[in-house]
Amino acid sequence: MIKPHKSIKIGLITATLSVMLGESVVATSSQLKTSSSSLESTPIILAQNSSNSEADRLRQEGLQLFQQGTAESLRQALEKWQVARQLYRAAGDRRGEAVTLLSMGRINDLLGEKQTALDYYNQALPLYRAVGDRGGEATTLSNIGAVYDSLGEKQTALDYLNQALPLFRAVEDIGGEAATLNNIGHVYDSLGEKQTALDYLNQALPLRRAVPDTGGEAATLNNIGDVYDSLGEKQTALDYLNQALPLRRAVGDRGGEATTLSNIGAVYDSLGEKQTALDYYNQALPLLRAVGDRGMEATTLSNIGAVYDSLGEKQTALDYYNQALHLRRAVGDREGEATTLSNIGAVYDSLGEKQTALDYLNQALPLSRAVGDRGGEATILTGMAFLQRSQGELTEALVNMEKAINLTEELRSLAPPGELRQTFFSTVQDRYQLYIELLMELHQQNPQKGYDALAFHASERSRARRLLELLAEAGANIREGVDPQLLQQEQSLIQQLNAIEHQRYELTQGQFTTEQIDALKTQSQSLINQLNQLQTQIRVVSPNYANLQYPQPLNLEQVQQQVLDDDTLLLQYYLGEERSFLWAVTKDSITSYILPAQGEIEAVAAPYREAINRDNTTTVAQGLPLSEILISPVVNQLNNQRLLIVGDGILQFIPFAALPIPSQPDTPLLVEHEIVTASSATLIAIQREQLANRDTAAKIVAVLADPIFESNDQRLNQITSDNNSPSLDDLALARATRSLGLGDTAPQLNRLKYSRVEAENIAELVPENERMKALGFEASRYLATHPNLSEYQIIHFATHGLIDTVNPELSGLVLSLFNYQGESDNGFVRLNDIFNLNLPAELVVLSACQTGLGREVRGEGLVGLTRGFMYAGARRVVVSLWNVNDLATSQLMTRFYQEILNENQQPIIALREAQLEMWNSGQWQSPYYWGAFTIQGDWR
């Protein structure tokens, strides 16, 4: 079904440009109480001390009417100014005439009479030039740019705005400069160039606050909110919009207030809070009608229609859409017209009237192209492809989807680097899903034409792109050559964030209130937002980043050549709403399989995952229903090969090594196969390329284990007891897990004594001069972040782990929380800390709970610790999928390292052998004890 899309217009407020025209003055922001247009436009300028007192009087009366801010008062003001303009002209007062023409243009702009507004502006421009008034010239150029933007002629708009900007700067008009920067940012936003948009808007905001220009500040806050909303960062968008709303009310800008209300409604709509969205829209609508802002009224009507559409009230939706369409055509808003036509098409699609729906989309497409709305064009093309597919026109649908995907890739490259690009990509995954569906349907019809290979490539293009970019940035050392002050600011923010989170942890160890926790959460979120923005800025200004060529996802042939060998079979899964797919790829073949829909797979996978996470009586055979879905189709191709698993969705949480062989329900896959996991096949190739010629570290292993977590730990009072190891019959400790909850209640950080046994067993396998063993107090954050850690080939952490699925930046490892003096110490090593490490290790082992998990981002996978350590330089990372048992993990890791250090086995082989030993032991046979650990990265 075609999904309707919103048409948000933010930052739509009348400009208050401080242009001094000799003895003329500009109305201040507090005086202007008018509606919104797509860009900020001219102030109303009053010529004073003119030789024509009658014209001056009419100008003053017109200004008073203008300030009332209603559609009727605007028309009355226009009548006054038409007479004043004739009087100025008759008197030869070119400046007075120019000012009046500018004001008349502004009113026509507000009333939606765009061509008339252009006519007045173009009459004013030569008059300002004739009298040498560069400020007035800049204002007029800026207003012409605003009109062209609203007409969808974006490049023409930029041409005029870029003529205005240096003139404002030349006359030192900070307000005019800020408004023009704001407007340029708004245009780039509508063109899909989100990073450029943010650059201009973030230049405008401090200028507006410096003037100060409260109304202008509100406009820019709105525009920034718009960018974040379009990138999928809904909460950040709301933060900016909720800053703008009281400012607009403070200056009495009813049109601006209505715009902000409407935009807040649009965000709530996208968050699924439909009634809240309607409440905001219904507050905005009467205000917009009162001030005569037909353009924004149309936007709000269209967005109300989208809510009713999603609620299933199709006729009501059509009523609102048709009202919006009439207004959008009346004001010449081609971009908005395209959106509304597309949404009407979506309604007809849901009503089963496919051809009618397609007709509307065919009307919308040329409009989106004409105004340069690449995002809208991609959405419309996707809708057309969906309809064509439903009519059996697969080839035509594929052509449109290829265009939509190419536009999406282009827009992704223009989005701000870092988390915002990742978030944007998550919002467009439906396009890749439809693209893959089409290719696989065509493959079924024409099995010999390579459509399955194209679908596999599309799957690679749809996943883990941010991780690939991170690895490229690590290799390019993008912080080199960056202003040291920016890097210092970054470290300062990280330190502040760590301090706040440590304070939050300490607060939970005693008496606390919800208000106290919420206050710290707010501070923490603010720091995270600042840090993300600063890191984006660092990338943008980095000389190395400017020259960086990001790696592109590999196609089938490249994966076969650069990733696979004769002994490895790639199993790549893609979960879809209608059906899912599995591609089994060898060095010289590809076979594809159709699997059940995502929901059906989840219905089987979720209870299995829950059971194996929690119950030490879980057997291998309990995974048979899931194995029959995921493994049975390809079972005849397995042939004892190494399996490279690229999962999707819930499959990223499943221990494939523990799934049974379908024909042998009591035998896990790892009996016949080495198993390695990856976010994408391309990731393996990128790692190999980057690390191909890296020198091996001089020393062998560094182990950090058995930290001090609790104030009642006996080691705080008896240093000599630090070497006390547990006995294997200590049942209480045997039940301990290496876990940490992240709720508002106090986390349980029990001592993990068997992590000490684990560490000592590992250390005994290595000569003393080639190892580092840090236990108790020594297992500290200081040591974990020390440059000396880069001297070791293997880094092993045996401790509690923590995962924050909302803010991955807060995920990490917990080391000693007290020092030798018994004083509280920050022992949390968080993801931001890890990204700043230099760890050219062959292997990093996170012998803790859930270290392979993270925030699940659609199209990116799990965002967590693995990518941090890979960014820091690790070739491979061993992680866990659930809260692992302390004693069992100690046993597993001891056997794992014996295979690596005594038998000289590769980590993937060593992990398999250790897990097999546990499974065969009897005591540890349940996959609960050994199945959590998986290896990610290159197996060679």
From TrEMBL:
Keywords: TPR repeat. Gene3D superfamilies: Tetratricopeptide repeat domain. TPR repeats lie at residues 138-171, 178-211, 218-251, 258-291, 298-331, 338-371. The keyword NADP does not apply. Residues 626-938 form the CHAT domain. It holds the Pfam family TPR_12. This is TPR domain protein.
